[in-house]
Amino acid sequence: MMSGKKIITSIIAGLSVLGLGLVVNPPAASAGKPDCNGRLCAYGEINWVGLLSPASATRGVIFNFSGLANDKTSSWSNETAVDGEYYSGANRGGSRFCANYRTANGWVGSGANDIFSSFYLFSNTTTCS
């Protein structure tokens, strides 16, 4: 007679042969990106590493990156309830990049990497597209 552990191992092996995966220890759900806590945040590295702006930005007010944070963004997270936009220039100048509410981008891509200089949070959720 097989032990309980051997039976479970046999079942898992059988499911694998059939192409049916079984996740024994699924990853824990994330409560948000590191240190962002419901804000619009920029990170200096891909996959939300190296927080540049713990932006508690006010809706309708331009936020300009300054000093070492300027032109360094590689990923972002918008955990607010409104859309936002990042810009390649100060004061909403230059190229515009949309950051829809409750979304995140772990890599902005080579065309947008390290060029963000300012961002803006809109007063409603439907402005950015």
Automatic annotation (TrEMBL):
It comes from the Bacteria. It holds the Pfam family Inhibitor_I36. This is Peptidase inhibitor family I36. It comes from Nakamurella aerolata. The lineage of its organism: Bacteria, Bacillati, Actinomycetota, Actinomycetes, Nakamurellales.
